[in-house]
């Protein structure tokens, strides 16, 4: 079975321009997990068909946690492969690395001069650390300004992200509104696009929200053995093989719903609810493992091909960098003339 609407870089399609969409992931690890995919990336794939989509790798954001050069460059390459294998299409969307648009750092500074301290103090990435007594650096504190710059530099209208990023898009709207009021209309006010329902909060193997930082994630491209071990370790209650079990809210079943067909899901629910049939959580976990591999089979094959062809990945990213350049230059010219700095063009 091929995943819902899934096409990947090993296939190809065309598009038409409309509203501008932008989103990105931070390469704090080299792999996209089920939460990232069902909470964010799958939506990006649907949206790219409408045209005007921009998907980037938020390398500078990763610097707040990744402090080793080799790890960062491997993560960036890894996320690029993941994007392409999962179906982000360089023919339909502009796919690029943040470092290929260094102007975001300049714009971030300009926007920071319009951003009240109180607004940043309320942002959860920073607030959570402080509340836990962990000291934060300026990068983490100023992170929403850089995110605003990412969004505004392509004058994006829509930002498809998971629930936890909504606050940052709202901060971006505030900052954009302030800029427009002070310096003239340059930026649209971007809307967050948030998925509702089960994809909004994909559970991890411990039943909490799946997150790299909790170490409870299932990476889509992890080696089979590792993935199976993690799935077999999913935390359950103590109902035995012959006991009836409630599927709703059960982590195995909730994850299965994301990757299996409607019939398979109905079948698992029936078997869980039955008593005396010798169907335990171990069986359900094995079915989840198999469905997950099947769902992402094409993507996993494509990912392996891309990993062995870094020159192709580099070419795609450079093509994205070239495609985004005109809009970045146009925005920065408008920003410069708004704030009273001579533009590149005028300087010749
Ligand atoms: P992580 O928590 O693993 O560090 P990120 O914060 O990098 O993940 O999230 C990247 C994107 O994926 C965001 O848009 C986020 O909302 C979404 N996302 C991450 N984890 C989940 C999850 N468990 N359920 C739904 N969406 C998620
Ligand atoms: N902060 C986002 C995350 O952790 C990544 C990101 C950086 C982003 N800049 C962005 C997402 C701009 C959307 C738009 O997932």
In short:
By secondary structure, this protein is mostly helical. The chain contains 15 helices and five strands. It has two domains: 6-202 and 310-339, Rossmann fold (3-Layer(aba) Sandwich), CATH 3.40.50; 222-295, Tyrosyl-Transfer RNA Synthetase.
Write the layout of secondary structure elements.
Elements (H helix, E strand, L loop, with lengths): L20 E5 L8 H15 L4 E5 L1 H4 L6 H18 L6 E5 L5 H10 L4 H5 L2 H8 L6 H16 L4 E4 L4 H18 L7 E4 L29 H9 L18 H9 L2 H12 L7 H15 L1 H11 L2 H30 L4 H4 L1
Helix pairs in contact: 3-13, 4-7, 7-8, 9-12, 10-12
The site of adenosine-5'-diphosphate has 19 residues, from helix 1.
List key phrases describing it.
3-stranded parallel sheet, 348 residues, Rossmann fold, mainly alpha, binds adenosine-5'-diphosphate, Tyrosyl-Transfer RNA Synthetase, 53% helix, disordered N terminus, 7% strand, 2 domains
Description:
Helix 3 packs across helix 13 and helix 7 (138-153) packs across helix 8. This protein has 15 helices and five strands. The chain is elongated and about 75 Å long. Residues 1-5 and 12-17 have low confidence and may be disordered. 53% of the residues lie in helices and 7% in strands. The strands form two sheets. Strands 1-2-3 form a three-stranded parallel sheet. It has a two-stranded parallel sheet with strand order 4-5. Helix 1 links the parallel strand 1 and strand 2 (53-57). The protein has two domains: 6-202 and 310-339, HUPs (Rossmann fold, 3-Layer(aba) Sandwich), CATH 3.40.50; 222-295, Orthogonal Bundle (Tyrosyl-Transfer RNA Synthetase). The protein is mainly alpha-helical and 348 residues long. It has helices at residues 34-48, 59-62, 69-86, 103-112, 117-121, 124-131, 138-153, 166-183, 224-232, 251-259, 262-273, 281-295, 297-307, 310-339, 344-347; strands spanning 21-25, 53-57, 93-97, 158-161, 191-194. Residues 22-26, 58, 61, 147, 150-151, 159, 161, 165 line the site of tryptophan.
């Amino acid at each position: 079975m091929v995943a819902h609407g899934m096409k990947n870089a090993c296939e190809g399609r065309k598009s038409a321009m409309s509203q501008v969409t932008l989103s990105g992931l931070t390469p704090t690890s080299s792999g996209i997990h089920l939460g990232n995919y069902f909470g964010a990336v799958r939506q990006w794939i649907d949206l790219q068909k409408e045209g005007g989509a921009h998907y980037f790798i938020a390398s500078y954001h990763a610097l707040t946690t990744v402090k080793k050069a080799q790890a960062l460059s491997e993560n960036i390459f890894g996320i690029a492969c993941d994007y392409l294998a999962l179906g982000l299409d360089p023919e339909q969307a502009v796919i690029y690395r943040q470092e290929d648009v260094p102007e975001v750092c300049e714009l971030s500074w300009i926007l920071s001069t319009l951003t009240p301290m109180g607004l940043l103090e309320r942002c959860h990435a920073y607030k959570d650390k402080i509340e836990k007594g962990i000291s934060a650096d300026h990068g983490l504190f100023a992170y929403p300004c850089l995110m605003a710059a990412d969004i505004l530099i392509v004058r994006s209208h829509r930002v498809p992200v998971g629930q936890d990023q909504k606050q940052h898009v709202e901060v971006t709207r505030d900052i954009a509104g302030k800029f427009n009021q002070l310096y003239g209309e340059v930026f649209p006010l971007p809307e967050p696009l948030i998925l509702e329902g089960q994809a909004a909060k994909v559970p991890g193997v411990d039943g909490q929200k799946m997150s790299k930082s909790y170490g409870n994630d299932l990476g889509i491209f992890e080696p089979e053995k590792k993935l199976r071990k993690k799935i077999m370790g999913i935390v359950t209650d103590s109902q035995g093989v012959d006991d009836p079990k409630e599927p709703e809210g059960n982590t195995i079943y909730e994850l299965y719903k994301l990757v299996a067909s409607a019939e398979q899901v109905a079948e698992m629910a029936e078997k869980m609810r039955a008593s005396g049939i010798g169907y335990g959580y171990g069986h359900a976990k094995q079915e989840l493992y198999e469905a997950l591999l099947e769902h992402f089979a094409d993507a996993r094959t494509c990912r392996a091909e891309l990993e062995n062809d870094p020159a192709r990945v580099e070419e795609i990213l450079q093509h994205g960098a070239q495609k985004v350049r005109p809009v970045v230059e146009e925005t920065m010219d408008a920003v410069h003339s708004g704030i009273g700095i001579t533009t590149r063009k005028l300087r010749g």
